[in-house]
Amino acid sequence: MIEGAVNAAHEAVVGLRVQGPSGRTRDLRAVVDTGFSRFLTLPPAIVAELGLAFTGIDRFFLADGSEVTLHVYAVTVLWDGQPRDVDALVADSTPLAGMLLLDGHRLCVDVEDGGRVVIEPTARG
Asked: What pTM did the predictor assign?
């Protein structure tokens, strides 16, 4: 089970540990974004710090309909105690945990400042 809290901006935030190819790790806080259909976004500084491997460039459409091109890197996320190799998009913003990262899990959020955030495996997860 992964736990976190709702912040003053009413964002569901969880702690994650990410790992680069050399084994170096970094703990970070990520906002759970149910409108983000990929795995994870990371800021450029964390990508550089961990020495993540570049895997390509992809185009994405944002909620406002605009299109952006983002670099994609391979990263390992310690997810509910297990390492998962996922794609991370580089975005100069707060890290986002997207719906592919939550696949096979249940998300429960008490939507209030300081409210509890719980991510737990479903029967198939």
From this structure: 0.91
